[in-house]
Structure formats: structure tokens, C-alpha cells
């Protein structure tokens, strides 16, 4: 059956070559568009830039493509970009981590209109992709507010500061008059995961030359369930032993007990899949002329998200007798989140009489994550336990002031320089007592007063860019000095060169140094959490563990860790660009990224010295590894007239590999290295993301019809179930998107289509990695949603 699905996908692909074209893809309609990233001169285009930049026309994509969030859009149009929804992973279910070029979520810098975007307050710690990192929530930016997205696939810390080791994502907001809106409904082939989405924007003139654009998104995505037919001994007291010795007999005996209680095995089915998410998002982008040569601009907004995800089910044999009166048949806790995000950038732009551009701005961002746990108990409270708890919250605030100067000296020289001051603050607030006392609420233990913390820091920076053109040769130079109040100074530089050796043909390359400051979240986060533990007899139990702060006495003096310091990187790239005609081009770029002192979250440390201090198992942030990443990006774009319509095609691919090349273990460490940074953590860094990913996008528009077919290949990944599972390779898969749109009138369009048309899933997990069959699929590659079908009505007014 899988072979037949692959054959159908291939046939659809080749049929699309003759019939369809895509008028919405990244480079095709942006060949001559000036980009904001790459250098601060703002006079370079996608084709003649010295470093690779993709420009995504989001306005067209949200009209036609199946994807409706920034994460999902980029995941299917930029092969070096990855974002996978996670299951049963606490807060990470509610904010999807994203990666670029196989690096961490915190090694990608996000800008809006060229201004630094704040990160979330969430630390990913559930052994998912990006474990131990703090990323930026792209899903908090309403797609209806976006004109284009620019992705700089090159190290840019020397230009933009911390977090830009892997590259930069710059979101360019709409700024033109006019209105548009869309209504979308969809659901999966399984009949769940329903989505309701409204997004719209309206722009008007503001003053003589200004504009103001209001944007909004209101959406809901309901949960999905993708659990297997689990082989759990629901009422027994030693299910692993029973099923290993006599699986058929043990299951029959267990089924008899289930029936005796008037239930079926479905009553104990785990909820495993995508969390339910509701969003309300509002943005404004405005600019107006205050006086001759003086402009005021402001943009930003609010994102309010409510999420519901599921923890591990507690079976009847796992519920203490004191709590069985509340949940006699066990229970599956529900983690509810309220994620509130606020942002604003306001500034003045002034152009002097001698053509210097001066930009003074202030950018504010705030992210708050509140937790509530429902359908749960605190075992220590027995029959009197509440079933709902407020489990606390964490928040992150960032405020950045920039003063920039730039000028085009002449046709051959551009210069830019400026300064930056940034203030950051991180806070954890304790939950109610019952959520953390004596083991706390099951599934998600609330933050205790010991976890509660307030930490802040500031940084100052000075930077300069120089762009030079000598005939067919261009050079960009950048340098940046930065001082952080909590770890000191760093100086970084970048040199990018491009030579057009024949008209339309060029060679380009860049080399740079970079850094990433340890986030305040990595410095100050601590908690207790529930995890699986392998008992000496091979059975598994749910146990409570913890993350302790790197600066704590336990980490510094007992384990012997050094204080967190910045990651240091070296980036190098070399590429070729070919543009023989205005409608056809090819870019091929190779890259190398070396990161020293990479900040990671350790495995579970169970050192006896920790137990002596009342900690059974702990994880700690540490500069534990050095990594090297090597890869190649390919982009091919072509457009032409075909019959009476317009045809275009885009082929893009990424080949990428990350390896750990060195470890930094404390000399005083008394536990095995596998416990400090074990195979499961190595797996997340090296092999849990596809090393090969490619996409072929074809489309055709004729008269009132437009068509899109897109095949995306997600390469194989390896998942290591250490310490209680095994190593499994998940083979590569092809996912097909297909949409058909019809213009009902000049201003009304109706589109239907599918993401993952042929209902492709990752390979099923081997039994030992699936928690007795519960987790049928691992959330890798394209995720575990399967086919998704939608209908959309688009309006212009």
C-alpha cells in the first residue's frame, strides 16, 4: 500500500509538470525584490546578494496553499527549515520549535521589519527537537499581517547580534491600502483535527504618503488522536512481566477485569496527537510623514493563545488506593496553557540634506506562559485532592533601543553603522501549593517557591557595515562589538564576496564569526517534571525528576560545572548563481558551521552526591559540546507562458549533517558519560531531524483557475529510545499537497485542496520505543497528523 501511495505521488508530480504551475513560491515572483537582510544597504536583490536569501510571498500563499501558520508555510517552502508538532511534551505542544540548517531553535534570529523579535519564555525540555533551547514563536505573528518573509541562510551574528548563528528570518509587514480576508475550514482524513480560521487585513492611507494596516487572525485547531492499540495491563500490578511471559493470557485476563467493570479497552485509550489550540491575534503597521524628511512608524500587536494538551494516562493499577475514589478507572491529565504575547516597535526615520538616513527606534516584546492542570490529582492529598490546579507561569521581557545611520556614498560605496541597548528580564512565578507540594499535580508538577525567580541583564552593542562595488565584484564587510552585563565582551566580523564572471553567472562566498549569549531562561529555569524510569527488573515507572539551575550550589560545587558562557561560532559558505534569463535561475550554496561551547541540557544525572542533597535525578544546562554542521542548499526556479496560462516551477533541496566533535565533561564527574550526555541527547543533535529534504512545486494559472501541486521529500531520521528503547531508522517519505482555486469574481476566490493528500505517516515505532504500543508514531519528519483537507473562501475589498 505504501508503495502504491508513493507511485500515486510520483504520477501526480509528473502530471503536474504538464498541467499545473505555482504562482506563489518564494524566489519566482521576487527576483528583483529588494531585501532587508544580508546587509544594511537595502539595495541588494535575491539574485545579486553575496549570501543566500529566500523571499516568500506570503500574501499569495495564504490564499492558495494548505498551510496557514508561519511555521507550516516555511516548513514546506524552505527545505533547510524544519518545524514538527510534538505530542505529550508539556508546553512544547503549544509552541512549535523551529530549526534552520539543522541548528537549534535558539540559533535562528527573527526580525520584524528589520527589528529584533523577542523569544518566548518557554524552555523545550521534553527531549524533542531543540531540547534545552528557547526559540521565537513565529506562530504569534498573524499571517494576514505579512507581506513577505525573507530568510537569510547564513550566519549573521556580526550584523544582528546574538542568536543569528544559523541565519535570520525577517518578517516584512503589509503597508499598502486595501483589504482582504479569508475563511478556512478543514479536517484530517481521520475526521479529527478540525480547523476554523479567519484572517483579514485592511489598509488605508495615513497622511499624504503614509499608510496604516490593521490585521487579525482568529482560529481554532482541535485535537487529534493517533495512539496505537496499546498492550497495557490495565488492572494488573506487573504488566511488563505478565505481557512478556504470556501476552495472550495476560491480555485475556485483563480484558475480563475491564469487562467486569462495565468498560471496554477504548475507555483507557491514550489521547496522543496534536494539542487543541485557539488563537486571537491582532497587529497594526503604520507609518506617516511628520515633517519634510521625517517619518514616524509603529508596528506590533497582541497574540492570545489557549492550548490543551495531554500527559501520560495514569492506569487504575498506577493510582494509589487513597485517590481511587476520585478516579477509580485511572485518568489522563490535561495541560491547559494561556500564552500571551505583546510587541511594539516605534521609531523615527530622518533623511538629512546630505542624504544620511537616521533611524531611532524602540522595540518592546513580552511573552507570558500560564499553566493549569485539569483532570489530575495530587496523590499526597488523597481523596481530598482537587482535580484542577494552577501550576504557575513564566514570562520574558525584552526591550531594545537602536540608533542606525546609513548612506549610499556613491554608486560603489554604501556605509551603515549604529548602536544598540537591550534589556531583558525573565521570571518564574509559583503555582498554588497543591500543584507542587509532596510530588505535586500528576503529569505537570507546578512551579514551587524554590523555582520562583527573577533575573535580568542588559547589553550594549556597536556595529558597522560597509558595502563596496567594483565593476562585477562586490564585497560586504560587517563588524560588531557587544558587551553583556552577565558574561562580558564579544567581537565578531563578517566578509561576504560576490563576483559576476559573466552576465547572469556569479560565484559568492562568506566567512564570519558569531556568538549566542546564554538565554536568561537557560540561566534561571528550574522545575520538577514527570518522566519514564526504567526499573532494575526492566519495568517502567512514571517518576518525578528535576532541572536545577547551572548557578546552583549543586551544579557548581557538587557536580562541578562551569558557569554558562556564550556559544562561539565560525561560519563559511561558498556558492554559485546562474541566471541565464530573467525567468530562470539556479543557486547552489555549500556551508560549514562550527559551534564551540554549545549550550545543551544534560541527560538525567543520578550522582550519589545529588541524592545526598535530596535530588534523585537532575538535568542541568551546560556548555557541554562542540558541533560541526555541513550542508548544501539548491534552488532552481523557472517561469514561462504555457498555452494561454502562466506556468512556473521551483525545485529546492537541502542536504545537511551535524556532528558532535568534542565533549566538555567536568573533571569531578563521578557518573558515566552516558548519564551526563547520553545517546538520546546525541540523537537529538545529530540524527532526529532529516539530513535530506527537498520540494518540487509546480503550478498553473489560466483564466479563472489556478492549480498547485507540491511534493516534499522528508529524508530518513533515526530515533534512539535510550534508556528504555532501541535505535530505529524511520525511512524517508514524500508528502503531496494539491490545491485548486477558482475566481468567482474579480474579488472573490474559492479554493479547495489537501496537505499530505495520500495520508503519509512516519514509519510506525518499534514496540520497545512505543510505550507498549501507545505511541504508534514518533512526531518526526512530517508529523503525525496525516492527510488534511480544506476549503477556503478569499475576499478582496
Automatic annotation (TrEMBL):
Residues 300-757 form the TonB-dependent receptor-like beta-barrel domain. InterPro entries: Beta-barrel_TonB, Beta-barrel_TonB_sf, Plug_dom, Plug_dom_sf, TonB-dep_rcpt-like. Keywords: Cell outer membrane, Membrane, Receptor, Signal, TonB box, Transmembrane, Transmembrane beta strand, Transport. Residues 1-21 form the signal peptide. Coiled coil: none annotated. The keyword Transport applies. It comes from the Bacteria. GO terms for cellular component: cell outer membrane. Residues 48-168 form the TonB-dependent receptor plug domain. Pfam families: Plug (PF07715), TonB_dep_Rec_b-barrel (PF00593). It is found in: Cell outer membrane. It is a multi-pass membrane protein. PROSITE patterns: TONB_DEPENDENT_REC_3. Belongs to the TonB-dependent receptor family. PANTHER family: PTHR47234, SECRETIN_TONB SHORT N-TERMINAL DOMAIN-CONTAINING PROTEIN. This is TonB-dependent receptor. It comes from Faecalibacter macacae. The lineage of its organism: Bacteria, Pseudomonadati, Bacteroidota, Flavobacteriia, Flavobacteriales.
Amino acid at each position: 500500500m505504501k508503495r502504491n501511495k508513493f507511485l500515486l505521488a510520483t504520477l501526480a508530480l509528473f502530471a503536474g509538470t504538464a498541467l499545473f504551475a505555482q504562482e506563489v513560491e518564494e524566489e519566482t515572483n521576487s527576483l528583483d525584490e529588494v531585501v532587508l537582510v544580508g546587509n544594511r544597504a537595502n539595495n541588494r536583490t535575491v539574485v545579486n546578494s553575496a549570501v543566500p536569501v529566500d523571499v516568500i510571498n506570503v500574501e499569495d500563499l495564504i490564499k492558495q496553499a494548505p498551510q496557514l501558520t508561519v511555521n507550516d508555510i516555511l516548513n514546506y517552502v524552505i527545505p533547510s527549515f524544519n518545524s514538527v508538532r510534538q505530542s505529550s511534551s508539556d508546553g512544547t505542544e503549544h509552541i512549535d520549535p523551529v530549526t534552520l540548517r539543522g541548528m537549534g531553535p535558539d540559533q535562528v534570529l527573527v526580525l520584524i521589519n528589520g527589528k529584533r523579535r523577542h523569544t518566548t519564555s518557554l524552555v523545550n525540555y521534553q527531549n524533542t527537537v531543540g531540547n534545552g533551547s528557547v526559540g521565537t514563536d513565529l506562530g504569534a505573528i498573524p499571517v494576514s499581517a505579512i507581506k513577505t518573509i525573507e530568510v537569510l541562510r547564513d550566519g549573521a551574528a556580526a550584523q544582528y547580534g546574538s542568536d543569528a548563528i544559523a541565519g535570520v528570518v525577517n518578517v516584512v509587514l503589509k503597508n499598502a491600502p486595501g483589504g482582504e480576508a479569508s475563511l478556512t475550514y478543514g479536517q484530517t482524513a481521520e475526521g479529527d483535527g478540525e480547523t476554523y480560521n479567519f484572517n483579514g487585513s485592511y489598509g488605508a492611507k495615513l497622511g499624504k504618503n503614509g499608510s496604516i494596516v490593521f490585521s487579525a487572525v482568529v482560529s481554532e485547531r482541535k485535537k487529534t488522536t493517533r495512539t496505537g492499540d496499546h498492550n497495557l495491563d490495565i488492572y494488573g500490578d506487573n504488566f511488563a512481566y505478565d505481557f512478556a511471559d504470556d501476552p495472550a493470557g495476560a491480555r485475556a485476563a485483563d480484558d475480563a477485569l475491564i469487562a467486569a467493570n462495565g468498560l471496554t479497552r477504548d475507555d483507557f485509550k491514550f489521547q496522543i496527537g496534536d494539542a487543541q489550540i485557539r488563537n486571537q491575534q491582532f497587529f497594526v503597521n503604520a507609518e506617516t510623514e511628520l515633517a519634510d524628511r521625517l517619518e514616524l512608524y509603529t508596528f506590533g500587536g497582541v497574540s492570545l493563545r489557549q492550548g490543551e494538551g495531554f500527559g501520560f494516562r495514569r492506569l487504575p493499577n498506577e493510582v494509589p488506593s487513597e485517590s481511587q475514589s476520585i478516579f477509580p478507572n485511572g485518568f489522563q491529565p490535561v495541560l491547559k496553557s494561556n500564552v500571551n504575547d505583546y510587541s511594539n516597535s516605534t521609531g523615527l526615520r530622518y533623511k538629512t540634506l546630505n542624504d544620511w538616513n537616521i533611524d531611532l527606534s524602540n522595540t518592546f516584546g513580552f511573552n507570558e506562559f500560564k499553566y493549569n492542570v485539569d483532570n489530575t490529582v495530587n496523590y499526597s492529598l488523597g481523596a481530598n485532592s482537587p482535580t484542577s490546579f494552577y501550576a504557575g507561569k513564566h514570562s520574558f521581557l525584552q526591550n531594545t533601543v537602536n540608533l542606525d545611520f546609513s548612506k549610499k556614498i556613491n554608486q560603489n560605496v554604501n556605509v551603515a553603522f549604529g548602536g544598540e541597548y537591550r534589556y531583558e528580564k525573565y521570571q518564574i512565578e509559583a503555582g498554588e501549593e497543591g500543584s507542587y507540594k509532596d510530588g505535586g499535580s500528576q503529569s505537570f508538577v507546578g512551579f514551587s517557591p524554590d523555582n520562583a525567580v527573577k533575573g535580568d541583564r542588559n547589553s550594549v552593542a556597536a556595529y558597522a557595515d560597509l558595502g563596496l562595488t567594483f565593476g562585477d565584484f562586490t564585497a560586504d564587510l560587517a563588524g560588531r562589538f557587544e558587551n553583556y552585563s552577565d558574561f562580558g565582551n564579544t567581537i565578531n566580523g563578517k566578509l561576504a564576496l560576490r563576483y559576476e564572471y559573466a552576465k547572469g553567472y556569479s560565484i559568492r562566498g562568506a566567512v564570519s564569526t558569531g556568538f549566542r549569549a546564554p538565554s536568561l531562561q537557560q540561566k534561571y529555569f528550574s522545575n520538577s517534571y514527570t518522566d519514564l524510569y526504567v526499573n532494575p527488573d526492566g519495568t517502567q515507572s512514571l517518576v518525578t525528576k528535576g532541572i536545577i539551575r547551572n548557578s546552583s550550589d549543586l551544579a557548581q560545587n557538587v557536580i562541578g560545572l562551569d558557569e554558562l558562557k556564550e556559544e562561539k561560532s565560525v561560519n563559511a559558505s561558498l556558492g554559485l548563481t546562474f541566471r541565464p534569463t530573467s525567468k530562470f535561475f539556479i543557486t547552489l550554496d555549500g556551508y560549514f558551521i562550527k559551534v564551540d561551547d554549545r549550550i545543551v541540557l544534560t541527560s538525567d544525572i543520578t550522582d550519589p552526591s545529588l541524592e545526598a542533597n535530596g535530588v534523585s535525578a537532575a538535568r542541568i544546562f551546560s556548555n557541554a559540546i562542540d558541533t560541526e554542521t555541513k550542508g548544501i542548499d539548491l534552488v532552481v526556479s523557472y517561469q514561462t507562458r504555457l498555452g494561454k496560462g502562466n506556468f512556473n516551477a521551483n525545485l529546492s533541496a537541502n542536504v545537511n549533517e551535524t556532528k558532535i566533535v568534542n565533549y566538555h565533561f567536568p573533571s569531578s564527574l563521578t557518573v558515566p558519560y552516558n548519564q551526563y550526555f547520553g545517546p538520546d541527547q546525541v540523537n537529538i543533535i545529530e540524527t532526529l531531524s532529516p539530513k535530506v529534504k527537498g520540494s518540487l512545486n509546480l503550478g498553473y494559472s489560466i483564466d479563472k483557475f489556478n492549480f498547485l501541486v507540491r511534493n516534499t521529500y522528508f529524508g530518513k531520521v533515526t530515533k534512539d529510545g535510550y534508556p528504555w528503547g532501541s535505535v530505529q531508522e524511520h525511512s524517508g517519505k514524500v508528502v503531496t499537497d494539491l490545491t485548486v482555486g477558482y475566481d468567482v469574481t474579480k474579488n472573490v476566490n474559492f479554493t479547495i485542496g489537501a496537505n499530505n493528500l495520500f495520508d503519509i505517516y512516519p514509519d510506525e515505532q518499534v514496540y520497545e520505543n512505543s510505550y507498549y504500543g501507545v505511541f504508534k508514531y514518533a512526531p518526526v519528519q512530517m508529523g503525525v497528523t496525516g492527510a488534511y483537507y480544506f476549503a477556503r473562501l478569499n475576499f478582496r475589498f
